[in-house]
Amino acid sequence: MIEEIATVTTVHTGAVEVSCFSKSACGQCRQSSSCGTGLVSKALPGRDHRFVIATGLELRPGQQVRIGIPEHSLITGALLVYLLPLLCLLAGGLLASWAGFADGGSIAGALAGGVLGFGLASRLSRHRGKKDHPVILDALIPLARSED
């Protein structure tokens, strides 16, 4: 299980909405000033990810929780998003080429295969998303602040 710290933003009946900020590994090494990927990550703002998670815990907005995402969910999601459209794109181009179309037809077949692959990935991820949900592992205890 992959774990992440999230902040409760909204409390619903039997569920909470949590928010976690995506972190990039770029900028952690000494080459960040001359690395192209590091420069791009500095230019783009970080993303805020929101999830609604069913729970029986008594939580309040602003409280931090530890959430877990099943590893198989992350791996199959990555395969759906990256590999399936790529394989469909290649298959579409090869089928058009074997059918005797010229270069333009092969490109059109590849584009049609890519679009089909993205559509399949979207449909399969919606169907798969109904069973692979993040879960709240536990609520974090807030640190006591010293009064000076």
SSE blueprint:
Layout: E1 2-12, E2 15-21, H1 36-43, E3 48-54, E4 64-69, H2 71-98, H3 103-128, E5 135-139
Antiparallel strand pairs: 1-2, 1-4, 2-3, 4-5
Structural overview:
This protein has 148 residues and is of the alpha+beta class. It has two domains: 67 residues, SH3 type barrels; 61 residues, no CATH class. It has three helices and five strands; from the N terminus they run ββαββααβ. A five-stranded antiparallel sheet has the order 3-2-1-4-5. The mean pLDDT is 81.
Structure summary:
The protein has 148 residues and is of the alpha+beta class. The protein contains 3 helices and 5 strands.
Main attributes of the structure:
single chain, 148 residues, SH3 type barrels, five-stranded antiparallel sheet
The CATH level-2 architecture of the largest domain is identified as: Roll
Mean pLDDT: 81
What's the Cα radius of gyration? 22 Å
| N-to-C series of helices and strands | EEHEEHHE
Number of strands: 5
**Which sequence of strands runs across the widest sheet?**
3-2-1-4-5
Given this structure, which CATH class of the largest domain is correct?
Answer: Mainly Beta
* Secondary-structure class: alpha+beta
Shape: elongated
N→C terminal distance: 40 Å
**Could you list the spans in which at least 5 consecutive residues all have pLDDT below 50?**
none
Number of helices: 3
CATH topology of the largest domain: SH3 type barrels
Helix content: 40-55%
Provide the β-strand percentage band: 15-25%
Main beta sheet strand tally, sense and closure? 5 strands, antiparallel
Characterize the quaternary organization of these chains: single chain
Number of domains: 2
